[in-house]
Amino acid sequence: MVNSEFSIEDHEEYAEKIQDERGLTKEEADEEAFRVQLNELAVINRAIAVGISVSEEEALRKSQEIREVLKNGEAKNASEVMASIQKEIGQLEISEDEYWNEYMLSNYTHMVMREKLMEYERTHSGISWNERQQEIIEEFIASEKRRINEFKRKIGMK
């Protein structure tokens, strides 16, 4: 349920999505998708290192919480987000329940891990989350330089 490794498939899927949605060049989309995945992996690996875990039930609760907020129109752009989700559900050819309870589960697992890590770092580091998150990313880059460069090579980045 928790992906703490680089994924070419995730990279390509996200790069393609943001290239289409934002009108980016392939290079810009690749750079952005790489940055997002790198940051996410840095946070997830830090959470794992300090013993944070998330149960399937916690991830399902978060999924249902967000689903309700969107369905009830409580989010600022709820109708646009729901329209985008419905489009994605159609493209995936799955049911709405499958989308929320299976397809998105790893995303919500990561979201809950991030929330727990933010709380942990607020308690233990004494600095703001933004500062601490930047430190976590820098530490990850320094310790995983070989793996990062290997992944960049696999996805065609310099």
UniProtKB/TrEMBL annotation:
Identification of the protein by name: Uncharacterized protein
Organism: Anaerobacillus arseniciselenatis
